[in-house]
From TrEMBL:
Protein's UniProt name: Oxygen sensor histidine kinase NreB
Compartment(s): Cytoplasm
Taxonomic lineage of the native organism: Bacteria, Bacillati, Actinomycetota, Actinomycetes, Propionibacteriales
Organism: Nocardioides zeicaulis
Domain Histidine kinase: start-end pairs: 307-391
Annotated transmembrane regions: 67-98, 110-129, 141-162
SMART domains: HATPase_c (SM00387)
């Protein structure tokens, strides 16, 4: 799990944190202010003041991008009146346009682009006048306007693309979170359905056991006065039935407790290994031949195979005896083949839980998927359960 987490983090894009972004903006403004000092060397105090003021609003470009654009545009307009040559402070204008396209609503980004185009025309005319150009014909103004407009367009396009990417990523994250919530609800519903099924089974077990106990207890009460030996045998039957019912009820209640099964609400082939480990922990000697890695098979077939192994191992614990050895084999080819074989008492063991309902359940699960189950005494002793589920 730590390896997976590290791999996921390595693929995430690197981004500045809140403090890093604040320091980046401060350094950007500081760099533009330092560039403005060049106007002091050239003897342009007005240009120095305006070039130093224009970048300052960029400190708030992430939180109030449109207001920053208006402030920078206003200072640029003031500069066009006071200074007739380009200044380093005008570098703040494309940064402000980028910020509006990046973090402001779409209509504000379009407005910023239009303001930038208007500023390109004003700057081109003002610079030509400052350079001593008397002829303001289209042929002279157009190159400056197109160049400045291209810079503004590039800044706006970069900001709009970044905003579009962020919105796309946010939509993907929201969709993934929604899918995760849906999956959690489906798992919860599946677990609830499984608990309801187990509750119905527990009701049947308890109702059957109690009905037998009540009938036997009534018979023992009437027989005690006439034939005490019959009453003793009947009380023994009551005790046996009560123990069996109690054991089955405890098993079903154990399945209802979270975390006791060690598997998901709908287990599959990969969870058969858990059944083997559980049987070994209970003292049963189990030899397992399981596919590794686990092949990808339909969920219904995987669940049926898991339940067949589960029921077969339960029967081994009930009937095979304490020293029985078990061999579990699961293979996947044209179908899923399951075999659970033990060397215990097998069919010679006394019946413990009624007329073979576990085997009936196995056959019913296999039949749903067009498969078969064969169960009976194994050659050389013991008991074997073989199932085949076609894919």
């Amino acid at each position: 799990m730590p390896t997976t987490t590290a791999t996921t983090r390595d693929h995430r894009p690197w981004r500045l944190g809140p403090r890093g972004r604040a320091w980046f903006d401060r350094l950007l403004v500081a760099a533009l202010v330092v560039l403005a000092l060049g106007h002091l060397v050239s003897g342009q105090p007005a240009a120095l003041v305006l070039a130093a003021l224009e970048p300052l609003p960029l400190l708030w470009r992430r939180s109030r991008p449109f207001a920053v654009l208006l402030a920078v545009a206003g200072l640029s307009a003031l500069q066009a009146v006071a200074v007739d040559t380009p200044t380093t402070g005008q570098l703040a204008f494309p940064v402000a346009v980028y910020s509006v396209a990046r973090w402001a609503p779409r209509w504000q980004g379009v407005a910023a682009l239009l303001v930038g185009y208007a500023g390109a025309v004003v700057a081109a005319v003002r610079w030509l006048v400052g350079f001593g150009t008397v002829d303001l014909a289209l042929g002279n103004v157009a190159p400056y306007t197109v160049t400045i407009g291209a810079i503004v367009t590039a800044a706006w396009a970069l900001g709009a693309a970044a905003q579009e990417r962020e919105n796309y990523v946010a939509a993907l994250v929201a969709r993934a979170e929604q899918a995760e919530r849906t999956a959690e609800r489906e798992v919860e519903l599946a677990a609830r359905d499984e608990r309801s099924r187990i509750a119905r089974e527990m009701h049947d077990v308890v109702a059957h056991g109690l009905s037998v106990i009540v009938v036997q207890a009534d018979g023992a009460r009437y027989a005690a006065a006439r034939d005490p030996d019959v009453a003793v045998d009947t009380l023994g039957t009551i005790a046996t039935t009560g123990r069996e019912s109690l054991t089955e009820m405890r098993r079903l209640l154990g399945l209802l407790r979270d975390g006791d099964t060690g598997v998901a609400p709908q287990p599959g082939l990969g969870d058969v290994r858990h059944l083997v480990e559980e049987a070994r922990a209970a003292g049963t000697v189990v030899e397992a031949d399981l596919p590794d890695p686990v092949p990808d098979v339909p969920d219904g077939v995987a669940l049926a195979a898991y339940r067949i192994v589960q029921e077969a191992l339960t029967n081994v614990r009930k009937h095979a005896g304490p020293s029985a050895r078990v061999r579990v084999r699961v293979s996947v080819g044209r179908g899923v083949e399951v075999e659970v074989r033990d060397d215990g008492r097998g069919a010679a063991a006394p019946a413990g839980d009624g007329p073979g309902l576990g085997l009936v359940g196995m056959r019913e699960r296999a039949a749903v998927h067009g498969g078969t189950v064969e169960a009976g005494p194994a050659a050389g002793g013991g008991f074997a359960v073989s199932a085949r589920l076609p894919l």
